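User: Here's a protein and a ligand (iron/sulfur cluster). What would the complex look like?
Assistant: Let me lay out the input and then the predicted complex.
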Amino acid sequence: MPRRELSYSSFHTYEECPQRWKYLYVDGLKEADRSYFSFGRSMHLTLEAFVGPLTSPHRLRRNGQLTIFDFGGHSPRTDPMSLDELLARYRELWIRDGYSNADEEHKYFLIGTDLLKRFHSQFVSSRPVTVAVERDLSGRMGNVPIHGIVDRIDLREGRGLEVLDYKTSRELSLEDARTSDQLTFYQVLVQQNYSEPVEALTLYHLRSLRPLSAPPRDAKVVEGLATRAGVVADAIRGERFEPHPGPVCRRCEFRPQCPAFGGRSTSA
Ligand code: SF4
């Protein structure tokens, strides 16, 4: 059974196509590994290994009480690992699945190596105050229980929080950061779990090391997303899983069995 709390990914998948959501979250069907997913996962794991031990102990707000210390789930260290250490961890954590051949895998591996070298240099010189990495948070979006794993949370000089989401995609714009529903999800989760205010929502474009930052969403935007999350949660509870053909069909591997394309759904 899917987790009771709605994640951004689950919410987004359902909005794109309820039938596809059912294949993934109820029937438990898997899609083939893809190179870009493996590459993204490898980078996330390596950056977690690098930044995680440097997180600063920070108090979490739970049920209105400031009692729980968050050490980021890592053995703390004061100095960042060397570039050689970082690249060794990268080799250990590299995920080989999903590449069509050794050349493609090698090409991605080199992109990651170059990216990590530049990330290491920039991070060591700027030393942001990071309070959490890959943090699994739970909360509520309106009446809907939600959860999400936030890539990184930094404490800014103004004592507010910056919520960062790493992206390994080629193209990314400031407009993406301003309109991302995923960042709105994370804003709500961080606001409900931390005592400091959220000051910035950032899509961190790893290939260029460019942080694309937007201000936190206002109440109207959050309410709009909460309404949509409520619609999705109600529809899932009501087991409404009709196909919704659209652009996502081009990359959907369930077309052979999808009723919208003449297949026989596994839906009850
Ligand atoms: S092929 Fe299209 S309509 Fe069918 S499940 Fe996939 S995304 Fe939905």
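Summary: The longest strand covers residues 129-141.
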